[in-house]
Design goal:
Largest sheet of chain B: 5 strands, antiparallel
Helix content of chain B: 10-25%
Structural class of chain B: alpha+beta
Number of strands of chain A: 5
Shape of chain A: rod-shaped
CATH class of one domain in chain B: Alpha Beta
Shape of chain B: elongated
Structural class of chain A: alpha+beta
Number of helices of chain A: 3
Largest interface: A-B, 46 and 42 residues
Oligomer: heterodimer
Helix content of chain A: 10-25%
Number of strands of chain B: 5
Strand content of chain B: 25-35%
Distance between the termini of chain A: 56 Å
CATH topology of one domain in chain B: Beta-lactamase Inhibitory Protein, Chain:B, domain 1
Number of helices of chain B: 5
Chain lengths: ~130, ~140
Amino acid sequence: MRYEERMKVLTLLLLVPLFSSCFISRRTANEPLQAQRMEVLKPGTSTAGEVANTLGAPNEVVQLGKRMAWRYDFSAAKMAGFSIIILTFINEDARADRAWLFFDENSVLQYAGRTLEADRVEYAMPWQNVHD
Amino acid sequence: MRIIAVACLPLFAGCVSFKYERHSTYEPVSTAAVDELAIGTSDLSDALAKLGAPLYVWEGVNDAVVIAYGSSNEKQLGFSISLPLFEQASASFDYDDISSKLEGFVLVFEPDLKLRIVRAGLLGELGKAFKRRPDVVE
């Protein structure tokens, strides 16, 4: 084999494994929220103690004067990407389930709001619009 | 020589890179749904029913209740030269850190929980404007 041919083969051998660099990852934080458990809680009657017994400890407590609000959330993120030598494409999609429960000055549940969108998290490439 | 130069290119991949990144965080709330809320008549329960759970709840000035909805959809095209000495990754989400990048709505409620103010913009800046500052510790 001539010197030039040997160099070509060597170059190809060096490059081939470097073209196949792709990755995906998924990360979550906290436990998924369960809608059924939340439906047991009734504004106007459920107390903070009952909420804690049903849902566990909140992720955050915010004092609002004499009132308070509790946050429960579950976050999910999916990342996908690939590299071609020094060119890299990365897409990260993050969504969250969350619930805020508002208590009055007597620690009775007054209002509750929830948003469940964590299951809509998607793997995608940066040029894709998966949520449109 | 050209072949050698091309063969050496991958060796720079660790310190020289071109990146096209997109980060999509949370789903935006509908502007039409926010517009349906009426200042002075809608209350906190109306907002929760129409918009779902907020991202943030803050204590406002004079016992006001401040709630915030936001999302972000960032696209970045970049070139970087770096020498990584060590790398750290976090498996958790930090709500405070990301608020500066999120864009959306802040709703301010009176102590009787009637809607008083609606503002659109970056949550980090709006939060500074409407959040009650912590008391001075003597």
